[in-house]
Amino acid sequence: MTTARYRRIVLKLSGEALSGEQGYGIDPKTIQSIAEQVKEVAELGVEVAIVVGGGNIWRGKVGSEMGMDRASADYMGMLATIMNSLALQDGLETIGIQTRVQTSIEMRQVAEPYIRRKAIRHLEKKRVVIFAAGTGNPYFSTDTTAALRAAEIEAEVILMAKNNVDGVYTDDPKTNKDAKKYESLTYLEMLNEGLGVMDSTASSLCMDNDIPLIVFSITEEGNIKRVVEGEMIGTTIRGK
């Protein structure tokens, strides 16, 4: 029996990771695949919290560029993350994993409001907790949400699962064949070199709270379990 390297993790999923090959919306097969991978990790005894983006449905930044009020556009993005979270919850519970969705914007008919102590209690009971609706405030990304929630629940690591990207590169590997992959970085190096892994607010939160970040591809099944078991895949970013 394999042993997990981490006791409590935050899994950060981009909205695009749920859209599969179609590139937009929610793909049921992709949801099923991610749910199965999360189940593998949960069965190791790891406490799993998840933060999901909403870019497969709506991006607040795009709405703002179209002339919308930025706050309104961001709130629409938060609602998109709730849709993704409910879809993922359904996928997990279909395969027998107890899951709770907690939202930063109250909608009690749909999910629990975010309460830190209650979230930790769910995790201790080995339930998967999905944090939806970002921080509940406009102008903050779901990357920042992942960093904030990881600090609040004292997670040991943030696992950033990317769609069709297996780590952090010197340049976009899709357009530059000479782009080289980093095995490890510090947050300062990431910020100084302008690598678009996560925004500066999220990076600063992780750096200040000494939370490591591992960037890897979710496209290959079993990768979440490999990372949790300590296999060196993707790129690891640390405070020092």
From TrEMBL:
Binding, ATP: 12-15, 55, 59, 163, 169, 172
GO BP annotation list: 'de novo' CTP biosynthetic process; UDP biosynthetic process
Database matches in InterPro entries: AceGlu_kinase-like_sf, Asp/Glu/Uridylate_kinase, Uridylate_kinase, Uridylate_kinase_bac
GO cellular component, one term: cytoplasm
Superkingdom in the source lineage: Bacteria
Name of the molecule in the record: Uridylate kinase
Catalyzed reaction equations: UMP + ATP = UDP + ADP
Gene coding for it: pyrH
Binding site for UMP: 54, 74, 135-142
Activity regulation details: Allosterically activated by GTP. Inhibited by UTP.
Quaternary data: Homohexamer.
Coiled coil ranges: none
Primary localization class, coarse: cytoplasm
Domain Aspartate/glutamate/uridylate kinase residues, every copy: 8-217
Keyword line: Allosteric enzyme, ATP-binding, Cytoplasm, Kinase, Nucleotide-binding, Pyrimidine biosynthesis, Transferase
Positions of region (Involved in allosteric activation by GTP): 20-25
PANTHER family: URIDYLATE KINASE, URIDYLATE KINASE PUMPKIN, CHLOROPLASTIC
